[in-house]
Amino acid sequence: MTDYTGSGPYCYANSLVMSLPGAAARPSPGLVETLTGSPFGVQLLGGTVPLFDPYGWDPEIGLDDAVALLGFRCDRTSGGSADEAMARLRTACARGPVLVGPVDMGLLLYHPGTPWGPSAGGNDHYVVALAADGDTVLLHDPHGHPYATLPAGEFLASWRAEAVEYTAEPYVMRAGFERVRTVTAEEAVRAALPGAAAWLAGRADLPVPPGTVGGAEALERLADRAAAGLDAGVRELLADFAVRVGARRLADASAYVRRAGLGRAAAVLEEQARLVGAVQYPLVRGDGAALAEVLRRLAPTYGRLREVLAAG
Asked: In DSSP terms, which residues pair with 45 in a beta bridge?
């Protein structure tokens, strides 16, 4: 098997890597993504929005988990007025890169075609602020825009994140990253596995929109809808984002779990990566029957992965 290298929507993983100190010892984005817990589940958010991440999971939960598992700490702040947020950002940028987000990607007006309206699941995104001098914010956007600039007022509108459903807080940022302990990639992955098993089991302690389902049930329902014909918004979300990020998450998780010595779990994750990757062609070609067949083959693998992780 050849590990995947290439483009993909890994915004918060890439942003975290860019924000950590010590360039020579920074983790790979694939390791970060694995440690967030995102590969270990699937959900139909609100019963309608398909996402290849666990029931109740969101990037804010995942980032906090990954930072801790990697042996770092940081200062997370949010809220306040726009002026207060910009003052915090200026102060933090003077000390180093700042992980900013979630932001509304559709309001980052250097992206062609913006502003965008909210799509199925929202336009959430993460960036790294490098400087906030005068009336301009300088940032690295992992979606292909190094050293992008925005007027401060326009950046604040995106940073307010009003269209991002999983956060009620505007102006979230993480800064002041420092290492508190040294861990290897293998140690971090092994430490993450109990959390991965908990995601696969379905965590009941997290709020979710009414109608949300996870695991095999989510995929069976999605397969039924695929056979009947997906609506345009769901098809677009899957084709442009969810399948791409889902297959890559699983491929990266397989590679890192294998390196941590869990060959059986890695094999299930690789199977899942192949199946999610196989969704793309029938999805784009509009072959609902073939799409439903792949989704139904994928459905039982999440239970098998949970069993394998539980067995150690």
From this structure: 49
Q: What digits encode the pLDDT tens for the residues 238-284?
A: 999 999 999 999 999 999 999 999 999 999 999 999 999 999 999 99
Tokens linked to 228: 């009947």
pLDDT in tens, 127-148: 999 999 889 999 999 999 999 9
Helix 185-201 and helix 301-311: axis angle, to 10°? 130
Alpha-carbon distance 151 to 167, whole Å?
A: 24
Angle, helix 288-298 to helix 263-285, in steps of 10 degrees: 170
pTM of structure: 0.95
For residue 202, which phi and psi values (nearest 5 degrees)? 95, 100
Average pLDDT over residues 14-31: 92
User: Distance between CA atoms of 35 and 169, rounded to whole angstroms?
Assistant: 24
Q: What is the DSSP string of 121-189?
A: T--EEEEEEEEEETTEEEEEETTTEEEEEEEHHHHHHHHT-TT-TT---SS-EEEEEEE-S---HHHHH
Write out the H or E segment, with its range, that includes residue 98: strand 98-104
Q: What CA–CA distance (Å, rounded) separates 63 from 158?
A: 20
Q: Please provide the DSSP assignment of 106-133 as one string.
A: GG-TTSTTPSPPP-TT--EEEEEEEEEE
